[in-house]
Please model this.
Amino acid sequence: MNNLIELTSGDITRLDVDAIVNAANNSLLGGGGVDGAIHRAAGPELLAECRTLGGCETGTAKITKGYALPARHVIHTVGPVWHGGNGGEQELLASCYRQSLLLAKQHALRTVAFPAISCGVYGYPLQAAAQVAIRSVREFATDPGSVEKVYLVCFGDEMLEVYHGLL
Ligand code: APR
Model:
Protein backbone atom coordinates (compact mmCIF):
# COMPACT_ATOMS: atom_id res chain seq x y z
CA MET A 1 0.00 0.00 0.00
CA ASN A 2 1.68 3.24 -1.11
CA ASN A 3 2.08 5.62 1.77
CA LEU A 4 -0.92 7.93 1.61
CA ILE A 5 0.18 10.00 4.62
CA GLU A 6 2.77 12.74 4.47
CA LEU A 7 3.75 14.97 7.39
CA THR A 8 4.42 18.63 6.77
CA SER A 9 4.70 21.73 8.91
CA GLY A 10 3.80 25.35 8.39
CA ASP A 11 0.78 27.43 7.49
CA ILE A 12 -1.95 25.29 5.89
CA THR A 13 -3.36 28.32 4.07
CA ARG A 14 -0.29 28.38 1.83
CA LEU A 15 -0.56 24.79 0.58
CA ASP A 16 -1.25 24.27 -3.12
CA VAL A 17 -3.49 21.19 -2.74
CA ASP A 18 -6.95 20.19 -3.97
CA ALA A 19 -8.44 20.79 -0.51
CA ILE A 20 -7.36 22.05 2.88
CA VAL A 21 -9.47 21.03 5.85
CA ASN A 22 -10.72 23.73 8.20
CA ALA A 23 -11.15 23.11 11.94
CA ALA A 24 -14.40 25.05 12.05
CA ASN A 25 -17.20 25.47 14.57
CA ASN A 26 -20.85 24.49 14.23
CA SER A 27 -21.87 27.88 12.80
CA LEU A 28 -19.29 27.74 9.95
CA LEU A 29 -19.14 31.52 10.28
CA GLY A 30 -15.43 31.75 11.08
CA GLY A 31 -13.46 32.03 14.29
CA GLY A 32 -9.89 32.12 15.50
CA GLY A 33 -7.06 29.64 15.05
CA VAL A 34 -6.82 27.91 11.71
CA ASP A 35 -10.46 28.86 10.97
CA GLY A 36 -9.53 32.53 11.20
CA ALA A 37 -6.38 32.06 9.13
CA ILE A 38 -8.27 30.25 6.36
CA HIS A 39 -11.02 32.88 6.17
CA ARG A 40 -8.44 35.70 6.12
CA ALA A 41 -6.51 34.04 3.30
CA ALA A 42 -9.57 32.96 1.29
CA GLY A 43 -11.30 36.31 1.46
CA PRO A 44 -14.93 37.28 2.12
CA GLU A 45 -16.40 35.05 -0.59
CA LEU A 46 -15.62 32.03 1.60
CA LEU A 47 -17.80 33.36 4.41
CA ALA A 48 -20.50 34.21 1.87
CA GLU A 49 -20.58 30.59 0.67
CA CYS A 50 -20.42 29.27 4.26
CA ARG A 51 -23.51 31.32 5.09
CA THR A 52 -25.46 29.25 2.55
CA LEU A 53 -24.53 25.92 4.20
CA GLY A 54 -26.66 26.15 7.32
CA GLY A 55 -23.94 25.19 9.79
CA CYS A 56 -22.21 21.85 10.34
CA GLU A 57 -22.76 19.10 12.92
CA THR A 58 -19.78 18.05 15.04
CA GLY A 59 -18.06 15.09 13.38
CA THR A 60 -19.39 15.90 9.91
CA ALA A 61 -17.90 17.87 7.00
CA LYS A 62 -19.00 20.26 4.23
CA ILE A 63 -17.05 21.46 1.17
CA THR A 64 -16.70 24.92 -0.38
CA LYS A 65 -14.50 26.54 -2.99
CA GLY A 66 -11.09 27.89 -1.92
CA TYR A 67 -11.45 31.39 -3.48
CA ALA A 68 -8.23 33.39 -2.89
CA LEU A 69 -6.47 30.36 -1.32
CA PRO A 70 -4.02 28.34 -3.41
CA ALA A 71 -6.16 25.31 -2.47
CA ARG A 72 -9.08 24.69 -4.82
CA HIS A 73 -11.46 23.71 -2.03
CA VAL A 74 -11.93 24.01 1.72
CA ILE A 75 -13.46 21.04 3.55
CA HIS A 76 -14.98 22.40 6.77
CA THR A 77 -15.25 19.94 9.63
CA VAL A 78 -16.20 20.49 13.27
CA GLY A 79 -14.14 18.61 15.83
CA PRO A 80 -15.27 17.71 19.35
CA VAL A 81 -14.44 19.91 22.31
CA TRP A 82 -12.31 17.84 24.72
CA HIS A 83 -14.19 17.16 27.97
CA GLY A 84 -11.89 14.51 29.42
CA GLY A 85 -12.48 11.74 26.88
CA ASN A 86 -15.63 10.07 28.21
CA GLY A 87 -18.11 11.88 25.99
CA GLY A 88 -17.46 10.19 22.67
CA GLU A 89 -14.77 12.68 21.69
CA GLN A 90 -12.56 10.02 20.10
CA GLU A 91 -15.30 8.73 17.78
CA LEU A 92 -16.34 12.28 16.84
CA LEU A 93 -12.74 13.19 15.96
CA ALA A 94 -12.34 10.01 13.88
CA SER A 95 -15.58 10.92 12.12
CA CYS A 96 -14.14 14.34 11.19
CA TYR A 97 -11.23 12.69 9.39
CA ARG A 98 -13.42 9.96 7.85
CA GLN A 99 -16.16 12.32 6.62
CA SER A 100 -13.65 14.84 5.26
CA LEU A 101 -11.82 12.11 3.32
CA LEU A 102 -15.10 10.69 1.98
CA LEU A 103 -16.00 14.18 0.71
CA ALA A 104 -12.59 14.45 -0.97
CA LYS A 105 -13.15 11.08 -2.67
CA GLN A 106 -16.69 12.04 -3.74
CA HIS A 107 -15.28 15.18 -5.36
CA ALA A 108 -12.48 13.19 -7.06
CA LEU A 109 -9.80 15.20 -5.24
CA ARG A 110 -6.21 13.91 -5.26
CA THR A 111 -4.49 15.86 -2.45
CA VAL A 112 -5.93 16.86 0.95
CA ALA A 113 -4.27 18.62 3.91
CA PHE A 114 -5.48 18.43 7.51
CA PRO A 115 -4.58 20.65 10.47
CA ALA A 116 -4.63 18.98 13.88
CA ILE A 117 -8.40 19.11 14.32
CA SER A 118 -9.54 19.97 17.87
CA CYS A 119 -5.95 20.33 19.16
CA GLY A 120 -6.10 24.08 19.71
CA VAL A 121 -9.06 25.92 21.20
CA TYR A 122 -10.97 22.65 21.56
CA GLY A 123 -8.27 21.25 23.83
CA TYR A 124 -7.89 17.70 22.51
CA PRO A 125 -4.59 16.18 23.77
CA LEU A 126 -2.07 16.11 20.89
CA GLN A 127 -0.86 12.50 21.32
CA ALA A 128 -4.38 11.06 21.45
CA ALA A 129 -5.56 13.22 18.54
CA ALA A 130 -2.57 12.22 16.40
CA GLN A 131 -3.33 8.53 17.00
CA VAL A 132 -6.94 9.08 15.89
CA ALA A 133 -5.80 10.99 12.80
CA ILE A 134 -3.28 8.35 11.70
CA ARG A 135 -5.63 5.43 12.38
CA SER A 136 -8.48 7.14 10.49
CA VAL A 137 -6.35 7.90 7.44
CA ARG A 138 -4.93 4.36 7.42
CA GLU A 139 -8.45 2.91 7.49
CA PHE A 140 -9.40 5.20 4.58
CA ALA A 141 -6.29 4.06 2.69
CA THR A 142 -7.88 0.64 2.11
CA ASP A 143 -10.22 2.31 -0.41
CA PRO A 144 -8.89 5.82 -1.15
CA GLY A 145 -10.40 6.26 -4.62
CA SER A 146 -8.97 9.43 -6.22
CA VAL A 147 -7.10 10.51 -3.08
CA GLU A 148 -3.33 10.07 -3.56
CA LYS A 149 -1.87 12.11 -0.70
CA VAL A 150 -3.10 13.16 2.74
CA TYR A 151 -0.93 15.82 4.35
CA LEU A 152 -1.00 16.08 8.14
CA VAL A 153 0.03 19.69 8.75
CA CYS A 154 1.78 20.60 11.98
CA PHE A 155 1.77 24.21 13.11
CA GLY A 156 4.89 24.02 15.26
CA ASP A 157 7.41 21.34 16.15
CA GLU A 158 5.49 19.75 19.03
CA MET A 159 2.84 18.18 16.77
CA LEU A 160 5.50 17.19 14.22
CA GLU A 161 7.39 15.25 16.90
CA VAL A 162 4.18 13.59 18.09
CA TYR A 163 3.25 12.45 14.55
CA HIS A 164 6.84 11.30 13.81
CA GLY A 165 6.76 9.23 16.96
CA LEU A 166 3.62 7.45 15.75
CA LEU A 167 4.52 6.85 12.09
N1 APR B 1 -1.96 26.27 9.66
C1 APR B 1 -1.95 25.01 10.16
N2 APR B 1 -2.36 24.71 11.41
C2 APR B 1 -2.78 25.74 12.18
C3 APR B 1 -2.82 27.08 11.73
C4 APR B 1 -2.39 27.32 10.41
N3 APR B 1 -2.39 28.56 9.88
N4 APR B 1 -3.31 27.87 12.74
C5 APR B 1 -3.54 27.05 13.78
N5 APR B 1 -3.22 25.77 13.45
C6 APR B 1 -3.30 24.56 14.29
C7 APR B 1 -3.26 24.78 15.78
O1 APR B 1 -1.90 24.90 16.22
C8 APR B 1 -3.88 23.48 16.26
O2 APR B 1 -2.89 22.45 16.31
O3 APR B 1 -4.56 23.99 14.04
C9 APR B 1 -4.87 23.12 15.13
C10 APR B 1 -6.34 23.33 15.49
O4 APR B 1 -6.44 24.44 16.38
P1 APR B 1 -7.68 25.48 16.29
O5 APR B 1 -7.54 26.29 15.06
O6 APR B 1 -7.75 26.18 17.60
O7 APR B 1 -8.97 24.54 16.07
P2 APR B 1 -9.76 23.64 17.13
O8 APR B 1 -8.92 23.26 18.30
O9 APR B 1 -10.38 22.55 16.30
O10 APR B 1 -10.88 24.63 17.67
C11 APR B 1 -11.89 25.04 16.76
O11 APR B 1 -11.50 27.34 17.20
O12 APR B 1 -10.96 28.93 15.67
C12 APR B 1 -12.00 28.39 16.37
O13 APR B 1 -13.89 28.68 14.92
C13 APR B 1 -13.01 27.73 15.47
O14 APR B 1 -14.58 27.49 17.23
C14 APR B 1 -13.65 26.79 16.43
C15 APR B 1 -12.49 26.33 17.29
Observations:
- Helices lie at 33-42, 44-51, 89-106, 126-140, 157-166.
- The two ends are 15 Å apart (CA to CA).
- The longest strand covers residues 19-24.
- The chain is about 35% helix and 20% strand.
